[in-house]
Amino acid sequence: MALEPGQLLDMYRTMVTIRTFDRRAADELHAGNIPGAVHSYIGQEAVAVGVCSALRREDRITSTHRGHGHTIAKGADIKFMMAELFGRSNGYCHGKGGSMHIADFSVGMLGANGIVGAGLPLATGAALAAQMEGGGGVAVSFFGDGASNEGSFHGSLNLASIWKLPVLYVCENNRWASGNSAAATQSVEDISVRAVSYNLPGVTVDGTDVLAVYEAAEQAVRRARNGEGPTLVECKTYRWRLHAEQRNDPPDPRPQEEIDLGPQHDPIATFAGHLTQQGVATEESLKQIDGEVAAAVDEAIDFAKASPFPKPEDALTDVFAP
Amino acid sequence: MALEPGQLLDMYRTMVTIRTFDRRAADELHAGNIPGAVHSYIGQEAVAVGVCSALRREDRITSTHRGHGHTIAKGADIKFMMAELFGRSNGYCHGKGGSMHIADFSVGMLGANGIVGAGLPLATGAALAAQMEGGGGVAVSFFGDGASNEGSFHGSLNLASIWKLPVLYVCENNRWASGNSAAATQSVEDISVRAVSYNLPGVTVDGTDVLAVYEAAEQAVRRARNGEGPTLVECKTYRWRLHAEQRNDPPDPRPQEEIDLGPQHDPIATFAGHLTQQGVATEESLKQIDGEVAAAVDEAIDFAKASPFPKPEDALTDVFAP
Amino acid sequence: MREVTYVEALMEAFTEEMRRDDKVFHLCGNHGPLAALIPEFGEERVRACPISEEAYVGAGIGAAGSGFRPIISPGMMTFAFTAMDQIVNQMAKIHYMFGGQAAFPLVFRASTGGGRSAAAQHSQSPHPMFMNLAGLKLIMPSTPYDAKGLMKSAIRDNNPVVFFEDQILAASPTKQEIPDEEYTVPIGVADVKRHGSDVTVIAISKMVSQALAAAEELAGQGIDVEVVDPRTLVPMDVPALRASVQKTGRVVIVDEACLTCSAAAEISALITEDPATFRALKAPPKRVCSPDVPIPYSPIMEQFCLPDKDNVIQGIREVLG
Amino acid sequence: MREVTYVEALMEAFTEEMRRDDKVFHLCGNHGPLAALIPEFGEERVRACPISEEAYVGAGIGAAGSGFRPIISPGMMTFAFTAMDQIVNQMAKIHYMFGGQAAFPLVFRASTGGGRSAAAQHSQSPHPMFMNLAGLKLIMPSTPYDAKGLMKSAIRDNNPVVFFEDQILAASPTKQEIPDEEYTVPIGVADVKRHGSDVTVIAISKMVSQALAAAEELAGQGIDVEVVDPRTLVPMDVPALRASVQKTGRVVIVDEACLTCSAAAEISALITEDPATFRALKAPPKRVCSPDVPIPYSPIMEQFCLPDKDNVIQGIREVLG
Ligand SMILES: Cc1ncc(C[n+]2csc(CCOP(=O)(O)OP(=O)(O)O)c2C)c(N)n1
Ligand SMILES: Cc1ncc(C[n+]2csc(CCOP(=O)(O)OP(=O)(O)O)c2C)c(N)n1
Ligand SMILES: [Mg+2]
Ligand SMILES: [Mg+2]
What we know:
By secondary structure, chain A is of the alpha/beta class. Chain A has helices spanning 5-30, 45-52, 68-73, 78-85, 119-133, 151-162, 182-185, 210-225, 256-261, 267-277, 283-306; strands at residues 60-62, 139-144, 167-173, 176-177, 180-181, 202-206, 231-236. In chain A, strand 6, helix 8 and strand 7 (231-236) form a beta-alpha-beta unit.
């Protein structure tokens, strides 16, 4: 399905929004305004945006500890996201979840997740719901290369396969699982080969190329909507920053030469080049989008800073639904 | 490695011992002499015996809820096994474990296990120990087709692969996981294809042919002892009796035609045919072994019946090692 | 009125609620008795799953967050520790973590308890672990009547509800009368199973029958025992428990869990930390629990571990001084 | 004498015990500070594992049953619920189930507790769950001195020992003097961290510092607080706890766990069920715990949940009446 110029520019805008959001969130964390830790998605923008561009609003996704990109790509409002990071009462989770648990069920974003691999079963269940609803909905689980060694990966893919669930398992292979390299902890180079174990298709794409990701996702989504079952989509990518931004950042365990390679495959620059080459945009029109995004993120930060803090005893609400 | 006639006859004797032991154990259970439940290994004898014939006494195995066959094949004493089933104080576990937890660490039998899939990580650790000991030891995990859907399967094979651990993962594919058919719950026909996910060799053999099992195991053991890492060995087999013998047996959910096929591929009859054809044994000499085995199992039952019961307050010992 | 067993009572609850709400469906380890629901509701609503508890328990949570009301039945709770991460980190926490924006209505049912010579991996009473885990309701019914009424409430509840069925009760042919017309039993309300004035026995699940047997026996000796069944452990009907103890001044708490950090420990603390109840106590509260051991296989040792009528009587004699 | 932090104290214990016994080795989720052991002991004895907690925790148990003494460090306990089946059904039970024929000497260490704005999936105090699970020893040290001495004892113990390190203590730069010469702290022995006569405060792990701060503040007001640190939760030094309460007649129990079925519940029950201690009580025992909620992210709400000095003081005032 060919993408319209408007869609392409939306994708560009979303990628820039993710990057800007995460850069500014890290700054605010280091400035002491955001508590806890923030896992930056910078470098991986093409994955969330490529996949979510193939989805409808009603489709459901589950995410990871590195969840800002998925949340933005699925259409959440960055104001309420930022307010959540700031621990304010009008954040998406009223300050109860923070960066690692941002969720916006109204756009089908079923939550970032602090437990590696835990989102796969949840998405499998969302896919089961979609199948039982019968409306052609699909579910997507984003997860990392490290997560592909968890048992939840194994059980989920088997379950989805036997029930032909409409689900995409999207592995963002950035070759590191916090301090551990995939080389040292992963028995296979390409996670997609693991699809064989469940009798389902597995593909590997360049996860820094948003159009390649979109193509793969779009095909898998079509398959899913047609009742043909799940697909494992591996996106090779790289994380530019530390595993997590924290008050006292530990040293990055990755080799510096490797880190330096990241920005040489910048998903945003690559896509910008494509857009201008194809005449969909000019450098100026992209600059304008960049400026609008910067303003929107500024606004989100202002919104967050102006937002009220929760009351201490708000801790006691929301344990049980009415 | 060609097997000597004496070894072949030992293998035959062990297979008959397993079958006789399990038939008699079921009888004793239904007679009210054995409490709890017993999972019969009848029909699968060739797997335990084929694999364990390729092992040394110091090699270590982990087992399943269906563990009598593995325990006997690894060289445990059926008297103490039977006493354990009878809940007596001189059973292998002093009556604390019963059928599902028979263990004999002195012969490298690290325990039957009531939790499906739980033995795989344990064997992986035994293999790690063997590797660190450096004596060329290997470990084997026996498990069922159903267990291959547990997360413990996935994590164990990945771990063993990256560390090149000397371990065999032996899947006894009897096509059923209690009430669930593999057809309904398993996304692949051959479990051995899952080896691809961990970059290790996977083979499928006829699990009713003890020599075929032996060949595959022997090759995998050689690989393991040479530091070349783990192998996944799938043995296609069939369980003749109910999933578990209990006081009130539920109906067997399997189609009768399928059940009837089991004894048509009788591992013992097949092997007996081979032995007589090859002149290793005569029908009479095999009959004699059968008779000796029957007597030995009789003796084990007599031993169990004559064994003392534990004292109630023995329940309080063995919680912690000194 | 009709007479039903514990399992029959639960099956009635399932049938009625599945008719009432087509979002209710089952994810189970094995069909077992649930197979009887297939003719009416189809395999799609009664799903047997591969042995991947983590995956299908998590899938149940995901389906609950997507508008369905799954009933998840892995079988024994001991097996379901393979799904413990999904229970601890997702089921119990996500409604709260997400600021209450989505409900996760599901029933997680599993069998617990010992008494069948199944050894430690098939005989455990881990309900106290779940009491310590904030975010889950927890029900342990002792009778067919309560089982049906509480299961219906659990299915209708908008939260994850853990429903522990004692494996002896679940296998028991004992029948109890239940009404022909529909009824529910509210979550969080204790039930006085026997009124008495000399001593309160608070008993959980299968232990209720042991407590009642003890009460029966002691009645002949002029000792008037009140038996209170909390039925729901989270939320706990604290006022009901305290009221009984304030009346009798003496309490024995009978819980099949291992002693340390048992539900009995919690109930003991709830009783003694309340000034009025503390002052009313004429003797130290007594816990009757399993010892801190993995439950053994051999019946002799197993029976020694599990609290029974005699242990209850002994406990009562102790608090009567 | 030297001054060391909590983590430095643990690292000393590892180094000394790895030198002493070449069967001791590490399986960890991430090297983290353990990386410092690699130059001396090699990567083979300090193994970083894939994110497959179930597999490597189980592998540790298998290695322990095969003659080694692994130290297993998945990181936070919350993550390690992915390995809960191996912990519940293997680690805790197999020594017993197998009739004691094999020892499983291992240390399972993980961080617990809240206070770092990490939200519910990274902030939990689930030690009561492990207390209810028979078959594991359980240690929660509050100081560098205790951490080192107890870790050495844990490594030498022939059983699975769960060692929970509070995440705030583990990250703390606070130093404490420890002896230059080798020492161990025995498992199962409580420590009176402050002697006093008016009221006993029993506090666990990080809560010990809150209790001591409260005691300090109240000392100025003429209230003499005794602070007892159980250090080991299984086995619990019950005589020491009861002795203190018999002396003071009043007790506050401070535990970061959620209230219901907390360690505080168990300690409360242990105190009140003993006739001599019960009689000595001048006021109901008081628990100071986190409320029954998943721990929230925003610092304001999180601080509200975690017990602190002020909560301890309030608890003390309550029992002083
Ligand atoms: C079950 C579990 N184990 C360990 C952790 C600690 N942890 C957080 S993120 C992470 C690395 C995840 O790697 P990957 O899945 O590749 O995702 P990435 O961080 O690369 O995006 C680890 C080990 C956790 N949160 N959950
Ligand atoms: C983790 C876990 N889930 C479920 C069960 C219940 N159960 C016991 S045996 C069994 C079937 C196992 O099937 P398979 O692995 O194929 O072994 P088989 O019985 O065929 O030998 C099941 C589901 C269990 N014991 N442990
Ligand atoms: Mg990664
Ligand atoms: Mg099978």
